[in-house]
Amino acid sequence: MSVPRGLRNCNPGNIRITKDKWQGLREKQEDELFFQFKEMKWGYRALIRILQNYRYRHGCQTIVDFINRWAPPVENNTFGYINRVCSEMQVPNSYVPDVVDKSTMCAFAAAISQVENAVPAVMEDIYKGWDLL
Q1: Residues 13, 125: contact at Cβ < 8 Å?
Q2: Contact 110, 121 (CB under 8 A)
Q3: Residue 63: which of 44, 47, 87, 42 has the closest Cα?
Q4: Cα–Cα distance between 115 and 57 in angstroms, integer?
Q5: What's the predicted TM-score (pTM) here?
Q6: Cβ-contact 24, 54 below 8 angstroms
Q7: Crossing angle (nearest 10°) for helices 102-117 and 123-131
Q8: If you count Cβ atoms within 10 Å of the first and of the last residue's Cβ in the chain, which end, N or C, has fewer?
Q9: Of 65, 44, 43, which is closest to residue 54 (Cα–Cα)?
Q10: pLDDT, tens only, 24-76
Q11: Handedness of CA 59, 81, 120, 117 (dihedral sign)
């Protein structure tokens, strides 16, 4: 069984390459589409920071708002993605996550990683990412 791309890249959210210069990026980026991080904690840090910015810069409130932005319908089954994240977090899709609460955001990152990579997240990696914020 091959390792999912997001895990190979230490990018559990499959964050697409942009002009952003994230902390913890590998010196050489060999994936043409997705960022590659040195360690998983850096990938989780970026994922959490993006979600926080969705609230601060884009006004996302509910899980539906966040996932519609994270996984837009033009390239995803966004409805299914929302349902899966909500199921993983055991919250309704109207849930408004507290973006400064460690346990909430680590659970949110774990749920996104689960959907993106089809394997459970390693919570220790997520906590290490949170600690880098």
Answers
A1: no
A2: yes
A3: 87
A4: 24
A5: 0.97
A6: no
A7: 130
A8: N
A9: 65
A10: 999 999 999 999 999 999 999 999 999 999 999 999 999 999 999 999 999 99
A11: negative
